[in-house]
Amino acid sequence: MTKYVARRVALAILVVAGVVVLTFVIARVVPGDPAASWAGPHVSRAELARVRHDLGLDLPLPEQIGRYFAGVAGGDWGTSIHTHQPVLSDLMDRAPASIELVTVAMLIALVVGIPLGLISAKWPGRASDGIIRVAAVLGVSMPAFWLALILQLLFFQRLHLLPVAGQYDPNLDYTHPLTQYTRMVVVDALITGNWIVLRSAIAHLILPALVIASYPVGVITRMVRASVLDTVGEDHVRMVRALGFPERSVFGRFALKLSLNPVIAVVALVFAYSLANTFLVEAVFDWPGLGSYAANAISALDTPAIVGVTLFIAVVYVVLNLAVDLVQAYLDPRIRLR
Amino acid sequence: MFAKGSRIATVVMVLAVAAACSGTSTAKNSPSGSAASNATLNYNVTSQVMIGWDPSTGYSNEIIAMNNMYEQLTRYNPDTKQVDPLLATKWESSADGLTWTFTIRSGVRFHTGRTMTADDVKASIDRTMQLNGGAAYIWGPVKSIDAPSADTVVFTLKYPSPMDLIASADYAAYIFDTKAAGNQDLAKWFEAGHEAGTGPYQLDQWNKGQETELRLKAFPDYWDGWNGSHYARYIFSVTPEATTAAQLLRSGQATIVERMTPQLWQTFQNQDGFTTTDDASWQTLLAMLNTSSGPLADVNVRQAVASAIDYQGMMAALHGGAEQISGYVPPGLWGHSDNLPNPTYDVQHAQDLLQKAGYGPSGKPMDLTLTYTQGDADEQLVGQLMKADLAKLNINVDVRGLAWPAQWSMAKSSNPADRQDILLFYWWPDYADPYSWFINLFHTEPKPFFNLSYYSNPQLDKMIDDVETVAATNRDQAVGDYQQMQTMLLQDMPAISLYTQVYQKAMQSSVGGFIENPAYPNVVFGYDVQPTG
Questions:
Q1: How much is the pLDDT for B472?
Q2: Would an 8 Å CB–CB cutoff place A91 in contact with chain B?
Q3: Measured between CA atoms, how close is A239 to chain B, in angstroms?
Q4: What is the distance in angstroms between the Cα of A49 and the nearest Cα belonging to chain B?
């Protein structure tokens, strides 16, 4: 097991390093001078040259990459060209908001997706199966941007039930100021017992979380359905059924447990995917997360920020995958031997 | 499993309903700004506010907040086309325009608690000139600054320049407490999120990267006092998506929205509870025509292209978000003239001109490349409209959207063959002076920088070199010079002045006294607007 873990960790570090080099090179070979974004609109020639020098953009590409890696190792992820702030500090500000949003979305997806998948698999071919399958396809294929606008129109403009955007009501900053520890508003409000901000934060979280959850709900529903249908046809499940266990137990206790391995893997992947792909949802809901930060970085050719976001997402991907691999290897000794 | 699942689902539903109930009060909040004592102005903007904190080098969107925390010696008044006193109460220049003496307002306090003196004015501008970053180039004419008394600052210039206008600049002209950081490095102190201005509002809290990014509060010792009705708090919140900004305004959470699409803006017109304003900006969109290579090197072809554009159709397509202008200097800025030989939409004239050059519907086809700044929906639309208009004349335009750094790199390419034929970009002045357009866009450049039509006219160069001297001593004559220069440019047509952007703002009707000042783009001077009702 130790050897297996060491091999997986070494591979993970290689993957992250490879992703960083590739992103760095791609971002730098795109035509354009990032110093132009930094220096401001009507910059002088001398100022542009000075900025280029200060940012190290006049160095050969391999030296820039070398300096970047040395910096990353020392905790310096470079300075963002569009925010003029240290990238690591920007990420620390932005990532908690995205992680909070995506975590809630994934919880919704699990709570909704697994039962729907089970219902669908329990009565395949029935009307309920058909409706769930159509809903799952819609969830996967519906543009998040469109869904976000529809939900805003419905729940904010028509029904006046939920707020339109933001993390919580900004007026509460004056009446019930929130002390931030984790920069996740719900978590900080819970820690500090700020119930007014907590209520406001949950209200603000519902719509964006529902929109982001639509894709993983579809994926998980389909995955659970297919996996359970495969499992219930296998000999050991047939034996459980032959032993007289009630159908509810056959599905809920035996078939589902055996079907969860691929679902866990998918959840880890979808979580990391959602972190980087929420920029449209974040834009619509004014959510100050990683997605909107990455989108602004790309339009400003902000290499340090682009590479920083990529590095962060790559680390999340790799760590989650590693965790899934290790959990699966722990649960299933056959995996360790492959 | 099903039982557990249903229990979890019930908990989630209960939480959702509880949250939904709390959301009701948020969504139905009454508009802010009804009580003057604690009224809050929530200015909703489209992008991050504080890019830089240093008043000497800041050269980006922070202008909208900086102009509420800091002040300049003078402020431009678009109605009188003159500057008004601000931290300077009066000023005068020598007959040759080389010495400018400003009398500094007494009793002004910095947010740090210190009282401002002439030495502080000198120290602020000296530091800005020394750092020479951002828009510090505006102080280029200054040879030295002296503070002979506590309320007098004297600028000695290398060449005559309109210092009263330069001192009103929206960037790099702020007066601040250079001793604010004590023994620390002042630049680092600023960049950590501090300010040391004299303005009516002072920093309360900066939430870097958050939706409610910046909170300011009234500075109790503001030199002009707090008599009358004023906002006590000023919030800057960032909403990139126009539809969301519109919803926030409807909910009352936003007091003023910086920008939305013209279509959304129109939904607030004549609607109870809201006020809309549309004022011409000084942000002009130019189509820079490549005068050095390709078909547009021929002045007849450039004039033909200028005559082939349906300007009225373009304005209609922009739904009030733009206003056609005469010449290159926008209205509201001195040097503007309505009596110029502007191009008009005349397809027959365009055909005749093209025919002279061997092109046109009966001649050989022409291929042009047009670049615009990616992400700017208006520029994209203009590019497509120009493509459609020119297609009627057998001119095929390849419209390319590029990020600004890439668009600019292509335009500055050392190989003329790699450059575009038409480049769309905006230009606006950094202080209330038309000089910026001429020195940057039309003065000969050995290597292209901002003269992206690669235009060279020695006669015009001479006039540009002399005009600031004239402006410093005889502004009426300078106005005439700018008219003459614009006439020359419209005859040579190195660039088509397509329009000036219109600021379309929507706000709660409880906001009183809002006046757009195009010299300070998108700045809402919180002190000058009043909470009413």
A1: 87
A2: no
A3: 20
A4: 11
Contact A32 B436 (CB under 8 A): no
A vs B, Cβ pairs < 8 A, gives: 196
Contacts of B210 in chain A (CB under 8 A): 93, 167, 288
Per residue in B272-304, pLDDT (tens digit) is: 999 999 999 999 999 999 999 999 999 999 999
- Label residue B3 by pLDDT band (50, 70, 90): very low
Distance from C-alpha of B349 to C-alpha of B307, rounded to nearest angstrom:
7
Q: CB-side exposure of B412: number of CA atoms within 13 Å?
A: 17
User: pTM for the full model?
Assistant: 0.81
In this structure, what token pair is assigned to residue B507?
A: 């706000």
Q: Exposure string (b/e) for B222-237, b if CB count within 10 Å is 16 or more?
A: bbeeeeebbbbbbbbb
Q: Which residues of B254-284 are buried (b: 16+ CB within 10 A; e: fewer)?
A: bbbbbbbbbebbbebeeeeebbbbbbbbbbb
State yes or no: pLDDT of B252 exceeds 80. Answer: yes
Mean pLDDT, to the nearest integer, of B138-167?
A: 95
Question: Is the CB of A248 inside 8 Å of chain B's CB atoms?
Answer: yes
**What's the pLDDT tens digit per position in B490-517?**
999 999 999 999 999 999 999 999 999 9
Tokens of B206: 């900066």
Cα dihedral across residues A282, A287, A290, A294: positive or negative: positive
pLDDT in tens, A166-176: 888 887 888 88
> What does each C-alpha distance from A219 to A184, A269, B112 come to in angstroms?
26, 11, 57
Helix-, strand-, coil-residue percentages of chain B, each rounded to 5: 35, 25, 45
- For residue B277, the model assigns a pLDDT of 95
Q: What is the mean pLDDT of residues A242-270?
A: 80
Nearest chain B residue to A209 by CA distance is B16
Any residues with CB less than 8 A from the CB of B104 and at least 6 apart, and which? B73, B87, B88, B89, B116, B117, B118, B121, B150, B151, B152, B153
Cα gap B401→A177, rounded to integer Å: 44
Query: Average pLDDT, stretch B359-386?
Result: 93
Using the structure block, give the residue that is written with the tokens 């998040």: A144
From the list A133, A156, A269, the residue with the least C-alpha distance to A208 is A156
C-beta of residue B329 within 8 angstroms of C-beta of residue B486: yes
Neighboring chain B residues of A283 at a CB cutoff of 8 Å: 240-241, 244
Residue B506: strand pairing partners: B257, B276
Q: Which of residues 142-201 of A touch B (CB under 8 A)?
A: 149, 152, 155-157, 160-167, 169-171, 173-174, 199-200
Residues shown for chain A: 338
Q: Report yes or no: A284 at the B interface, CB cutoff 8 Å.
A: yes
By the CB < 8 Å criterion, does B44 face chain A?
Answer: no
Q: Is B26 on the interface with A (CB under 8 A)?
A: yes
How confident is the model at residue B24, as a pLDDT?
A: 34
Q: Find residue B279's DSSP bridge partners.
A: B503
ipTM value = 0.73
- Model confidence at B21, in pLDDT bands (50, 70, 90)? very low
Residue B113, phi then psi, degrees to nearest 5: 105, -15
Q: What is the pLDDT of residue A185?
A: 92
3-state secondary structure of B179: coil
> Can you state the percent helix, strand and coil of chain A, rounding each to 5?
75, 0, 20
